[in-house]
Design goal:
Blueprint lengths: L2 H4 L3 E5 L4 H12 L3 E6 L2 H14 L4 E6 L5 H14 L5 E4 L17 H16 L1 H6 L3 E6 L25 H20 L4 E7 L12 H11 L5 H13 L10 E3 L2 E3 L8 H15 L4
Parallel strand pairs: 1-2, 1-4, 2-3, 4-5, 5-6, 6-7
Antiparallel strand pairs: 7-8
Amino acid sequence: MAATEMKNRVCVVTGGNAGIGKAIVQALAEQQAQVVMVSRDKGRGETAVQEIRQTIPNAQIDLVMGDLATITTTRQLAQELLDRYPRLHVLINNAGVWPTKKQINADGLEQGFMVNHLAPFMLNQLLSDRLKASAPARIVNISAGLYGNGRVDLDKTPYGHDFHPMRTYANTKLCSMLCFPLEAQQLKGSGVTLNAVHPGVINTKLGNMRGPLGWIMKLVKRGWATPEQGAVAPIWLATVPELATTHGKYFNEKEEIPLAEAAQNPELAQKLWQLSEYLAKSRR
């Protein structure tokens, strides 16, 4: 959409204080949207807002603190968004983690499963009525091409029983993509579109680790694209008029492609959906 078309439209970006998320916030602010930057760190969030306003003095950016690390805190974030914003027009699920060591949260869930899958799943569900009431509205799930290499065992993956510092990222991103078609079906005809995108191979802090492997990763990342380049496709999906009715599609940057074979397992997807719904309701 042109700047005038995005003016005052409320756009929520999770993980908006750094990397691709920050670049998305800045691009939306340039289009005069009212941008809600969700950050789990107040200091980093405030710094990011100040840096963007140095470039765009009149940027409409609200900083909302939100931690996607547990079911309770994710639910609290959704409630704050509902309390503060009578209209929500765009939700970009950008926040993600590449856990290099096993971490289990207060719900007994592995960190990557919680942040990469269950938290965006919950936000999509908890904010869906507000998005529908604000239609036309759009949800963009930022995925990763590595999801196609993932493997999901519902007895292990959610709880970290199959944790691996290199494989868990792909496994948990696959969880999100398994539920993606079911989420799209649920929203069909509602005025809310849902699409997913691999933004490219981007040089961010994601996957940084210590030791020799960490140094190798830093060297490899030097040739990867910038966060600003990674923001291009998500912004495109969230704003351009030509995609107003595009729904339930997966994009590699701006190219629509089929879901990887690993995500085309309806039986596993249905079981994961049921488990995700159960977990999401297990904390009040």
